[in-house]
Amino acid sequence: MSILQKIKNTVRSRSIHVSYVDVGSCNGCDIEVLACLAPRYDIEQYGIYVHNNPREADVLLVIGSVTPQWVDKLRDIWEKIPEPKVAVAIGNCPISGCVYARKGTLTSPPVEKYIPIAAQVPGCPPRPTEILSAILSVAPLIFKDYEEKQP
Amino acid sequence: MRSIVYYLREFLRPEWIRKFFFAKTAPLETPSYFKDYPSLTGNECVACLSCMMICPAPDAIAVLRTRDGWEPEIYPGHCVRCGLCVEACPEAVLASGRILDVTSRDGTALWSWYRLEVDDTLCMRCGNCCVSCPVNRKIDQQLAGSGTSSSDEVIMRVEGGRVRVIHEEKCTGCKTCELNCPNGAIRVARMVEGVQIAEAEA
C-alpha cells in the first residue's frame, strides 16, 4: 500500500461529511439526527461534519419511508454525491415502512429499491448513539483503500 | 521578550495541548432504564397472543412455535419500542427497561374486552351474525335461520326486527360474525384500558 493511500485512509476515517435527506417521515428521526449535533452527543468530535450539501457529502442519511414525490428526486440526490459514497438508512421507515406499511398509505418502502443502502439503523426513532456508531463503523469500511478496490 | 516566553510557557502546557487534541465527551452509555427491544425473560409463553394484539406496528412481533413451546420474536426493523407487549403479557415473558418493575410496583395491568357494534343503517336483519356466532351456538342449540332466540343468555339475537346485543362480555373476539355479515354492518373491536389491580378487583 502506498503512503498516499495510507494518508487517504486516515484522513477519510477522521473527516466524514454527512448529508441527510428526509423522504417522508414523521420528523422523529430528523430530531434524533439533530440531537447528534448538540453538545451532549457532539458528532463533530469524531470528525463528522453535517452540512446538507450532497455534492460535498460522503455519507447520505436517508430518513423516512419513500413517498411518490421522492422516488426520482432521491435517485438524483444519490447521483450528485461524489465517489466514494455510502448511504445509511436511519430508523424503521426506510427499512420496512414502520407504521406506514399498511393499506391506504402513499409510501413505497423500503428505500433499498431506489438507492443502494450500506447500513440500516433500526429504531423508531433510533438513539443518537446508535446513529453515531453506525456512521463511524460503516464509513471507514467503505472508504478504506477505495482507489485500490476499483477495477 | 520575557513576556512572550512567559505566555508561551503558560499556554503550551502539555496537559492543555493533550486536552485540545484528544478531548472527548464521556463515553456514551445506554442508560439502564432505556426501553430497548424486548428480550425474553425465560418464562414460559402460553401463546395467548396478547402481545401481538396490542402491538401498534405492523409485523413487529410474532409468537412462533419452537421445539418446546411458544416464543415471541421481535423484528427490529418493524418494532417501535413502545413496550406495550411487555405490559400486556400476563406471564412476563418479555422484559424491556424498567417496565416490569414499574408495573409490579404500581400494580397496573391492561384490561381488555370486545365491543360489538351494529350499524343499523347497513344491517338488513338477516341474522347471519347471531347464527354463525360459535358462542351463541353453544348457549342456544335451537338458534338458526332468522337469528331469533328464546334464550336471554345469548350474545346477540334478532329482536323486534333488529339485532340487539345482550351479553357483550361473552364475546371471544373470533370475528366470525364480521366474516359472515353480507353488508359489513357488524364490527368487533378490541378495547384496552389501563387499570390498577385494586381498581380492577373493586
Description of the structure:
The complex is a heterodimer of chains A (151) and B (202). Chain A is of the alpha/beta class and 151 residues long. Chain A has one domain (3-145): Rossmann fold (3-Layer(aba) Sandwich). Chain A contains 6 helices and 5 strands. Chain A has helices at 3-14, 28-37, 70-80, 93-96, 128-143, 146-149; strands at 16-22, 48-50, 59-63, 86-90, 119-121. In chain A, strand 4, helix 4 and strand 5 form a beta-alpha-beta unit. The two termini of chain A are 16 Å apart. Chain B is α+β, with helices and mostly antiparallel strands and 202 residues long. In chain B, 29% of the residues lie in helices and 23% in strands. Classes of the chains: A alpha/beta (151), B alpha+beta (202). Chain A binds chain B through residues 39-42, 45, 92, 95-99, 101-102, 120, 122-124, 127, 129, 132, and chain B through 23-25, 28, 30, 34, 56-59, 75-81.
Strand percentage of chain B lies at 15-25%
In this structure, how is the largest beta sheet of chain B organized? 2 strands, antiparallel
Please provide the ordered H/E string of secondary-structure elements of chain B: HHEHEEHEHEHHEEHEH
Estimate the global geometry of chain A from the Cα principal axes: globular
Which descriptors apply to this entry?
heterodimer, A: alpha/beta, Rossmann fold, five-stranded parallel β-sheet, 6 helices, B: alpha+beta, Alpha-Beta Plaits, 2 domains, two-stranded antiparallel ribbon, 8 strands, about 25% strand, elongated
Gist of the model:
Chain A is built from 6 helices and 5 strands. By secondary structure, chain A is α/β, with parallel strands linked by helices. Chain A has a single domain, classed as Rossmann fold, CATH 3.40.50.12280.
